[in-house]
Amino acid sequence: APHRFPESAAMGHSNTNRFSEEPDSGSLSSTLTFLFADLEGSTPMVRRLGDGYMEILRIYHAIVNTGVARHGGETVATEGDGFFCVFPSPGGAIEAAVDILAAMESRDWPGAERPRCRIGVHTGTATRTTEGYVGLDVHRASRIGSAANGGQVLISAVTNELIKPEAERAGWGV
């Protein structure tokens, strides 16, 4: 099922913020790259596995958190299997997404399960408030993530344009 963050969750809290200083007058706006990820078909998986789903969720969270941190991102909010992350550059977000999907694919999962992560990436502006990041581009990134299929990274046209030179050098084939 598509993952939708309620507005309060999309704004989320974080323990650290390396992308802007703490707002002193209520908000700061900046350009960032947003990554939304979730597990395709997680609701039926929870129904099938019951408490056994917790082990899959634990492994999945570790994979996403590692990929995000390795490429300079920050997890802003999580809700169940949904992640909202920000990166200072589109390249870091794309590299994290590729690493996450590769780690998901190569992992030995409990039982017969083969969970598939879907990821959406969009670059735009957001306002950082004391509650987190807010703005139309945050919602756009969430919708892009919802449109992706399991095992797929779907990126916006804006992000695609920004990463073209880096993608050509890296051979990403975008």
Description:
- The chain is 43% helix and 26% strand.
- It has 174 residues and is of the alpha+beta class.
- Strands 1, 2, 3, 4, 5 and 6 form a 6-stranded mixed sheet that branches.
- Strand 4 and strand 5 form a beta hairpin.
- Helix 3 (53-70) runs antiparallel to helix 4 (90-106).
- The protein is globular and about 40 Å long.
β-strand number: 6
Mean pLDDT: 85
Biggest sheet architecture? 6 strands, mixed
Helix content: 40-55%
Name some characteristics of this structure.
174 residues; alpha+beta; 6 helices; disordered N terminus
Topology:
Blueprint: H1 7-11, E1 28-40, H2 42-49, H3 53-70, E2 74-79, E3 82-87, H4 90-106, E4 116-129, E5 132-134, H5 136-147, E6 153-155, H6 157-170
Parallel strand pairs: 4-6
Antiparallel strand pairs: 1-3, 1-4, 2-3, 4-5
Helix pairs in contact: 3-4
Quick rundown:
The chain has 174 residues and is an alpha+beta fold.
